[in-house]
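Researcher: I'd like a candidate sequence for this fold, 407 residues long. If you have to choose between options at a position, lean toward the conservative one.
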């Protein structure tokens, strides 16, 4: 069996997943191929594509989507799929080029199609007509790969679960990479760490204002912020105006250095106004940290158990953020250690092995199902829709209800 994963870009977190899956599936008699579309224009284009594997390719390594026409994109995708001839195509949402055109190719060639998505169906607001068209096209997929069962309800309302196979667990990391290697882990570091891009949607203004209360009561606790972005000067000005003394902006840094800071901290805080998932939560928990999360971080619905391995809060309430920060820092160390153990236990259910097993089961299941031909209307819409790629609103807090946030 040949399986192809195609997406706008397959960098950062996808790299390790795909390398793992290539070997894991090979042992099951499955040949995995990976194709990414654009070398530029992604929020992750700092992670450059390097063609080091014969089974992995980038169709437009020197281009962003704005430099190409939809027909150029379609022709290159179809040419590559004709070359590989996969039995099953796996791609992101059909709102993207890879998903829309991957589905079109699969239907024209009587192949199976799996769509993956880490945005909850209820997170993305569209008008009635656009949503109806999207639903009509999406109903032609053979399987849906989502992060967890927490996502199922929204999709089950628009997709036939008897026809479309739902499976879970792709929003995972290599947990072993983040494991603390020492013998006795201290949770008396008096340090809370935040790893985030310095952009409006990460809500760092409210975090700093909430930290002011923490610092007034607990003068020896530190807030460490790792990441870079356009708000750095604005945030430092706010830090100064609030007279904060124990906040450190460390900027962007290599992954190994981030890991060192995770191991030297007592908890992770992520106050975002929205996160389609939030893989830094996986990283922190795999490093053994309790987590303090906005209730708009979708990973919280699956990975955070209130009072067990951390606390949640409303990102718009400074009082609630500081209350949960205070509640955690005032815990005795033995309770922080218990939260750490609970984080490790919970995150162990979302790892690469589990991802590989779930994907293998899905491939075997849909591989035995007959090809389903789209109806007249859905077939027409599939052939008319090319997809798109718009990331302009991803970082803006004011665009939280805009479909561009997750699309």
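Model: Candidate sequence:
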């Amino acid at each position: 069996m040949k399986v192809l994963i195609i997406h706008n870009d397959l960098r950062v977190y996808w790299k390790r997943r795909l390398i793992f899956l290539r070997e894991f599936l090979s042992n099951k008699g499955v040949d995995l191929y990976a194709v990414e579309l654009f070398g530029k224009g992604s929020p992750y284009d700092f992670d450059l594509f390097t063609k080091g594997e014969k089974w992995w390719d980038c169709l437009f390594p020197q281009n962003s989507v704005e430099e190409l026409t939809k027909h150029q994109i379609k022709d290159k995708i179809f040419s590559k799929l004709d070359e590989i001839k996969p039995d099953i195509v796996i791609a992101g949402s059909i709102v993207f080029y890879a998903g829309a055109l991957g589905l079109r190719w699969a239907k024209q060639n009587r192949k199976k199609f799996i769509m993956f998505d880490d945005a909850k169906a209820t997170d993305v607001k569209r008008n009635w007509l656009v949503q109806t068209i999207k639903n009509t096209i999406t109903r032609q997929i053979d399987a849906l790969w989502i992060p967890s069962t927490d996502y199922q309800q929204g999709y089950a309302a628009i997709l036939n679960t008897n026809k479309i196979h739902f499976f879970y667990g792709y929003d995972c990391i290599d947990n072993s990479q983040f494991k603390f290697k020492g013998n006795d882990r201290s949770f008396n570091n008096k340090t809370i760490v935040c790893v985030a891009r310095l952009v409006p949607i990460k809500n760092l203004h409210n975090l700093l204002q909430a930290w002011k209360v923490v610092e007034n009561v607990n003068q020896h606790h530190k807030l460490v912020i790792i990441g870079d972005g356009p708000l750095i000067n604005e945030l430092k000005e706010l830090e100064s105006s609030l007279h904060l003394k124990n906040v450190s902006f460390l900027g962007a840094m290599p992954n190994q250095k981030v890991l060192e800071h995770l191991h030297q901290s007592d908890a992770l805080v992520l106050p975002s106004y929205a996160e389609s998932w939030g893989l830094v939560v996986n990283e922190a928990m795999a490093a053994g940290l309790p987590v303090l999360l906005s209730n708009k971080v979708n990973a919280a619905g699956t990975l955070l158990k209130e009072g067990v391995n951390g606390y949640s809060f409303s990102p718009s309430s400074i009082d609630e953020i500081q209350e949960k920060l205070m509640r955690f820092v005032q815990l005795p160390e033995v309770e922080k250690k218990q939260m750490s153990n609970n984080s490790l236990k919970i995150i162990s259910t979302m790892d690469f092995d589990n991802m590989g097993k779930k994907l293998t089961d899905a491939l075997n299941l849909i591989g035995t199902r007959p090809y389903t031909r789209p109806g007249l209307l859905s077939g027409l819409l599939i052939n008319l829709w090319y997809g798109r790629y718009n990331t302009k609103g991803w970082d803006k807090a004011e665009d939280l209800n805009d479909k561009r946030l997750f699309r």
